[in-house]
Amino acid sequence: MFGCLVAGRLVQTDAVQVASDKFVFNLPDYENVNHVVVFMLGTVPFPAGMGGAVYFSFPDPASGGPVWQLLGFITNDKPSAIFKISGLKAGVGGTHPFGMMASSSSPSVAQVGVSVEVLEQLAQQIPVSSAAVSTVDSFLQFTQKMLDSLYNFASSFAVSQAQMTPNPTETFIPSSCVHKWYENFQRRMAQNPNFWKN
Q1: Beta strand 50-59 with 109-118: parallel, antiparallel or unpaired?
Q2: What are phi and psi of 72, to 5 degrees?
Q3: DSSP code per residue over the chain
Q4: Residues 59-110: pLDDT tens digits?
Q5: Angle at CA 194, nearest 5°, toward 192 and 197?
Q6: Phi/psi of residue 26, nearest 5 degrees
Q7: CB neighbours of residue 86 within 10 Å
Q8: Which of 78, 65, 77 is nearest to 37 (CA)?
């Protein structure tokens, strides 16, 4: 019914059913995982009016037992979701429906759990804020990184006027004008992230 995907690893479709409405994936070596994608396989839909709350569990450093955190949810209308787990804090958890029914025996193995629940109940739950993946447009992120790279690259060639030697084949642009343009670009992005689409 569910799948779990981590970059650089095989897709997991072998969720352990720990109760009639609870499913768990073991996530070994979780310290090296930044994001987790949970998705429906498309073979069995949720019953009408139901969805799946997605939880993440760290082994508690003190007791060794699982500490669960709500990441978000999936539904028939939203059959997949990506969650950032690299910012979550081990040992900090909240209420969850798993109890002690699902626990890993290894301190380096975390768990991803899916609990089938009523949609109205899912809508009232508050996920851990650090699990939300940035909704910034990927083209915008690329543009910002590209401009950072260009500015850093161009700045690496900066020389003072005392260091300059006459070269009639070379055109020099004051680094201050590139810096002013870059600051102006960042300010415009902060005020209106979609201005570049116009």
Answers
A1: antiparallel
A2: 160, -150
A3: -EEEE-TTSPPB---EEEETTEEEEEEETGGG--EEEEEE-SSSPPPTTEEEEEEEEEEPTTT-SEEEEEEEEE-SSS-EEEEE-TT--TT-----S-TTSS--SSTTEEEEEEEEEEHHHHHH----GGGPPP-S-HHHHHHHHHHHHHHHHHHTT---TTT----TT-----HHHHHHHHHHHHHHHHH-TTGGG-
A4: 777 776 778 889 999 999 999 999 888 877 766 666 677 766 555 556 678 8
A5: 140
A6: -85, 140
A7: 13
A8: 78
Q: Residue 47: what residue type? A: P
How many residues are recorded in the chain? 198
User: What does residue 157 show for φ and ψ, rounded to 5 degrees?
Assistant: -95, 5
